[in-house]
Records
---
Amino acid sequence: MSDITKQFTAINPADVPSKVLRSGDKLPTVGLGTFGSDRFTHDEVAAAVKDAIRLGYRHIDCAAVYGNEKQIGQAIKEVIDEGVCTREELFITGKVWNDRHREVEKACQESLDDLQLSYLDMYLIHWPFPNYHAPGCDGDARNPDSKPFSVDEFMDTWKQCEALVDAGKVRNIGTSNMTIAKFEKTLPLMKILPAVNEMEMHPCFQQQELFDYCMKKQIQPIGFMPIGSPTRPERDIAEGDAVDIQTPEIQAIAKARGVHPAVICIKWAIKNGQVTIPFSVHPAEYLSNLQSSFTDPLTDEEFASIKNCECGSRLVKGQVFLWEGAKHWKDLWDEDGVIAQ
Ligand SMILES: NC(=O)c1ccc[n+]([C@@H]2O[C@H](COP(=O)([O-])OP(=O)(O)OC[C@H]3O[C@@H](n4cnc5c(N)ncnc54)[C@H](OP(=O)(O)O)[C@@H]3O)[C@@H](O)[C@H]2O)c1
């Protein structure tokens, strides 16, 4: 018995509800986020992955740009060697970073090697354009090579993702940070449709229209920053950003139930029909997040009251991906239904 399972009671993964994807694969509704930013070392994140799997997590949200796939790969190997679970029982997501859109197979193979896996369960295009910025760069930094969204370039990247499915290296493919306008232009051109869209979603930024669109198209929404990333670094906080866990609605429900407001955010995501990928390296926190997927769901009244938290507070604005001549970070999000050029 590992130390962590002496301190905490593990959850039976069978108790965690799943969503069935268009491929028939099952995606557990709570996964562990792995972006440690500069707050946690790669080893700390990998240790969390290892203990989270020992405590019942089966879905891990990775990305090459997080810089920690080597450490996470070792963690996954160790839990499989220990007999905690088999490879097939895990759902591992990877993402191609913006500077690798012209060499997706190579990028994917590097992730597979780092993660010590022969296939990924899901591979996402992390952002729908190849605009690159150095990890950790200042929010006002601009890369002169950045360009507006191009249907042709995106479809070239998508076709490379489709080829990975055909080659058996990836079981499902999906998008991240897409908009309805970009889907409208690209879905008709795809051979394999996206299984998921990973998108920012939390009580203060519910993205109802995009969420409904994805559901209608059988694209399962995965919500990132489900707690509103309350302790993200200063440089990622803009004036006017809402703090989900401090809203009166979330606080009132948390107080009445005697739980942390973060737990209410997770329960909202689950009742809303999302898959959610909260991050934490603290076992009590990530265990309570997993538990929230199947215990004490929000009542209809509680769920309805959280509708009032919506205030359009997008936290990942993406301004570092803007091209010369772009006016505002809103140009990335096609809010008027037109792809900005
Ligand atoms: N596709 C994309 O473009 C994209 C973009 C952003 C994020 N993501 C993914 O989404 C994941 C989650 O985003 P995120 O980490 O920024 O934000 P988040 O999950 O909303 O917030 C994480 C923070 O919330 C706190 N927390 C978590 N569970 C808690 C609990 N039960 N009780 C109290 N506090 C709790 C922790 O703070 P402390 O550490 O202070 O305890 C943790 O650092 C990332 O790790 C990444 O995998 C994807």
---
Amino acid sequence: MTFDRRRLLQALTAIPVVGGVIAILSPLFRYLKPNDKPWQIFTVAPDAPAGGAQIVGTTRSLAKPWDYFYFTYVQKFVQYDPTGFKASNIPGVAIRLPRKVRFANSQGFVGYRGETDIVLFQRICPHLGCIFNYEPDWHNVTAGYGGFTPPAFERHALMACPCHFSIYDPEYPADPGNVISGPAPRGARYFEFHIDGENIVVTGAELGGIARIEPADAAPPARGGEHTRAPS
Ligand code: FES
């Protein structure tokens, strides 16, 4: 009986100690792995993007070749704030091309399934993260972005970054948005989208960092590789 009572007292004494250790470790774990549930300290599942479908514009705004509009896609990630989500605004551009193209499979991410003459790109430059511009007149690219003169077959609207002058071709064959000049290690990132009636619906955004060449980019056929397209 004496033995049991001693063990019981030891156990009771340990309760506040254990509780104190958990109280100290919980904020530490939450600092390392933020979450919105106080005791969910051992969550290891990666954050899942949950942007959801968003109508970003209509095809009516893209009536003619090289018409464009800018938009913002709100990408959400599970966790981080009282609503359970962290939201990131991703600036984008939608462009009507003069002909149909097919998106490359970028890191397993396909922007659009099938051929399309409407293309969407994220405007966050893969070099160091500036926001690049759509330039309807290639002369503006030569004049305002470091003097790059596109070859004859690319003298059309281009996308250009004002920070270090990376230039992207929205009509690049089999890889729309490929980088054709400048330090960017790869082409412009895609949105996943489809056309529903006249609505342009974005359902996801290609994720990735900046200032690095990703493994699939290093192997041919590369995104962001050398500018080797033959004139068509
Ligand atoms: S951030 Fe765009 S070229 Fe450097």
